[in-house]
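Annex B. Sample input.
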Amino acid sequence: MHSARPQARNGTGPSRWYLIQSKPRQGDRAEENLSNQGFQCFFPQVDVQAVVGQRQVTRREPLFPGYLFIQLSEVADNWLPIRSTRGVQRLVTFADKPLPVADTIINAIRDRLAVPDGPRMLFQPGDKVRITEGAFANVEAIFERFNGEERVVLLMNLLHKTQQVCFPLRSVTRID
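Annex B, continued. Sample output.
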């Protein structure tokens, strides 16, 4: 179980989660370099199916491209090295002040990632589905595959030809 308010590394006060923006495609590098400095980081990633050439491969991709979380204490931690850490672009601020991310959000992300295959258990290739919103609302299609964490590729008959079309996961439901 996750603690509601973690303690700082040296025990001098509570630490909170903050958001770091990484340089483009350098989230792994930022996480590694921050961890090497003793910071606790959380860089949520998911497995994504992709077609490379003629074959399907699974690769890890960030759940939030360009962002990772870091746990810091306002009192105990030296925040200055974060700016110059390789891979880090900036600490995300609002009105020039870092805003903590609620522990419940971090815990919810961790819990969702802990479920094997997350939303992938919803559909299997070949399942009949119905689109629930947008211009194609109430149209039936065939589920083909997931495209990232929140999108699906469906096969639809358009103009007498089967076409692959991408839709948000939230706008598709299985037909039983």
